[in-house]
Amino acid sequence: MNDMSSKLAQRAQKLFIQHLRENNLKVTQERLALLDEIFATDEHLDADDLLARMKGKQRKVSRATVYRTLDLLVQCGLVRKSRLGREHYYYEKMEPGGGHHHMVCTATGKIIEFWDAELDERLRRICQDHKFRPTFISIQVQGLSEEGQKVEQNTSFF
Ligand SMILES: [Zn+2]
């Protein structure tokens, strides 16, 4: 973890503890460990990934705790939940000002992140035209990655 991301993780932990206390919820090691795990990676994780990672670190966390903690983290705006592709939800840390977009390969499940300031600006203007105040913008493009296109080619051959 580099300096900037560890600072981000520290700040997230502070906010999370505050959120838990405000809601009369216990600050547990499991909850903090899950937050750490999400902030230690740039990957998009689902609940099963998190469970597996915790198991790998010999930390006993129940599936219910994982789901409950993820809900809490999403509630306080520290973690972003996206339905990428059809099957399930992915979680990733929220970066300050970090509204990025996703391309999702429907063949391989690969997720590509992209940013485009001009695109975001254009979307804001479209919202303005509709007197709509955006609080969060995220685009998901589904299709086939380079690898995915090869897979599809191979399968359509048969
Ligand atoms: Zn992402």
Can you summarize the main beta sheet? 3 strands, mixed
Series of secondary-structure elements, N-terminal to C-terminal: HHHHEEEEHEH
Strand order of the largest sheet: 4-3-5
The whole-number mean of residue pLDDT values reads 88
User: At the first level of CATH, what is the class of the largest domain?
Assistant: Mainly Alpha
Ligand identities: zinc ion
Runs in which pLDDT lies below 50 for 5 or more consecutive residues are: none
What gross morphology would you assign? globular
Radius of gyration: 18 Å
Q: Which structural class do the helices and strands define?
A: alpha+beta
Give the helix level as a range of percent.
40-55%
* Overall CATH architecture of the largest domain: Orthogonal Bundle
**Number of helices, counting only DSSP H or I runs of 4 residues or more:** 6
Strand content: 5-15%
Q: List the domain count as a whole number.
A: 2
CATH homologous superfamily grouping of the largest domain: Winged helix-like DNA-binding domain superfamily/Winged helix DNA-binding domain
Verbal overview:
The chain folds into two domains: 1-95, Arc Repressor Mutant, subunit A; 99-158, 2-Layer Sandwich (Dna Ligase, domain 1), CATH 3.30.1490. 49% of the residues lie in helices and 15% in strands. The protein contains six helices and five strands, in the order ααααββββαβα. It has helices at residues 3-22, 29-39, 47-56, 63-75, 117-129, 146-156, and strands spanning 79-83, 89-93, 101-105, 111-114, 140-143. Strands 4-3-5 form a three-stranded mixed β-sheet, with no helix packed on it. The chain has a two-stranded antiparallel sheet with strand order 1-2. The model has no long low-confidence stretch (mean pLDDT 88). The structure holds zinc ion (ZN). Residues 44, 92, 100, 102, 113 line the site of zinc ion (ZN). Residues 44, 92, 100, 102, 113 line the site of zinc ion.
